[in-house]
Amino acid sequence: MATGIITSSDYLRHDTGxxxxxxxxxxxxxxxxxxxxxxxxxxxxxxxxxxxDQDLWRxxxxxxxxxxxxxxxxxxxxGRIALDHDTIIxxxxxxxxxxxxxxxCRAVDAVVSGKLTGAFVACRPPGHHATIANAMGxxxxxxxxxAARYAQATYPDQIRRVLIVDFDVHHGNGTQDxxxxxxxVFFFSMHQHPWYPGTGGTDERGIGNGEGxxxxxxxxxxxxxxxxxxxxxxxxxxILASFSPDLLLVSAGFDGHESDPLxxxxxxxxxxxxxxxELAAVARTTSSGGLVSCLEGGYNLDTLGDTVHGFIAAxx
Length: 316
Ligand SMILES: [Zn+2]
Known about the structure:
This protein is of the alpha/beta class. The chain has helices at residues 23-35, 37-42, 53-57, 62-78, 93-112, 143-154, 173-179, 225-242, 269-285, 304-313; strands at 3-6, 44-46, 81-84, 87-89, 118-121, 162-166, 185-192, 214-219, 247-252, 291-295. The protein has one domain: Histone deacetylase domain (Arginase, Chain A), CATH 3.40.800.20. It is 40% helix and 15% strand. It has an 8-stranded parallel sheet with strand order 2-1-5-10-9-6-7-8, with helices on both faces. Helix 5 (93-112) packs across helix 6. The radius of gyration is 18 Å and the shape is globular. The protein binds zinc ion. Zinc ion binds next to loops.
């Protein structure tokens, strides 16, 4: 398998200060990957582009985009500003957020063209809490959702059905919101419950034509990791029995790690390697044959590098 990584030092320009989702996350992740010289040399490096208004409009209202843009303009004068009690914007956050979404789209290009079978978008800010109408939960634009709609719009003959798998410890409420009535994008989230943001019950299954194309598997804190992995695998089997994706996109949040300060799950680095191999196996059944993983959560600076390194190495 050819694996690639989307990186940009501009992801450091989203400056949240002393916040869990801080610039150092990107730095420790890149430092750890580069320390594995063989792996780093093998990874194809891809630069993101800044997502266009057209890219963003496929998932967000003009008002939501304007609030982020205005937030960055205000932050340029006032220093950082808070969009809500945990979503911070700095002067360059809007630019970084467009590069995060554009990075996910570039990764789609690389996978759909057959250049890569696995792409990891090492982006920040993260995206999966950003709803159609609102930035929230550290997220400004919904990177994985924008990539899904980009794939369908750019490659209409090749990419009709997209599966999004979200294993972040928090429910991907934004992604669910965007595709809730859309049967062409299946959204599967496994997350701790009850936990932020409070959504993601099993009764949330989609609406209208999209009914049945959302699957939420809420799990209790401190669930046995073997049980978690069994549920994850069984859920993927259930989805694939009725939905044949052309492309697999992943909201790769690592805050379900046993050491993470923002979650109470007990997943280990080995668990994430198993998840990675499971997802790579699913990707091989899709018509594009590949997967794009976008970084979401993961907040322990001492462990995040090793966890992501293992996840990427296991894609091969
Ligand atoms: Zn999270």
